[in-house]
Known about the structure:
17% strand, globular, 11 helices, seven-stranded mixed beta sheet, Rossmann fold, alpha/beta
Amino acid sequence: xxxxxxxxxxCAGTYxxxxxxxxxxxxxxxxxxxxxxxxxxxxVAILIGPPTRRVKTRxxxxxxxxxxxxxxxxxxxxxxxxxxDQGFSIRQEILGIFKQPQQQYMLLRHPYERAYSLxxxxxxxxxxxxxxxxxxxxxxxxxxxxxxxxxxSWLIRQLLNIEDNEIINQQHFNNVCQILDHIVxxxxxxxxxxxxxxxxxxNRGNRPIYRNDSKSVQMRPPLSSFDQQIIDKFKExxxxxxxxxxxxxxxxxx
Length: 254
């Protein structure tokens, strides 16, 4: 069964992608090739095990449509699919290419933690390679929490391909739940447990396990430390994000 991982930004997705490469490389004796396709930002990483030879290049960049034309899809030893955020809207097309049985996985993060991480990432030099680097105009995090720059219902919009100017409602939530019900979902604190579910092991050699205790996390103020007006505005904008997180991570009723 092919593990399929949905890479939600700022939810330990890069850690899972890098870990998948190292775990499979150990299992396949350094015979893992990674293809990264990008067609209009619809990106999917496909980890493939060549049958005989070692691979010196870690990533092979190739246009998504060209990959489908050139590669003998049915004969590939596909070990993992990683669908990045802009590929969520064409996930059915991506999954439909491969005939092998698939199990889907995703990591989520508390909406406040994700908002804090995203803000500080996009306003720092760490994101200078990203097209969205420097896009946030808010001068402070508390200003960002109250602004329309902060993402609302991001996962719903990506999975259902809904524009930013459309208001999310209960039907949208119900529709996205029909998708998420078929995905194994964990909090980012359980990233290594998820890897074990995906590959039967989370052994990455001598590489460190995932720890969500970076300096920025230690400096993160609790949401309760802000004025009530800011808290209310944040909760209003992220009401559907909270519902998803609570239902699939905290296992509460929707």
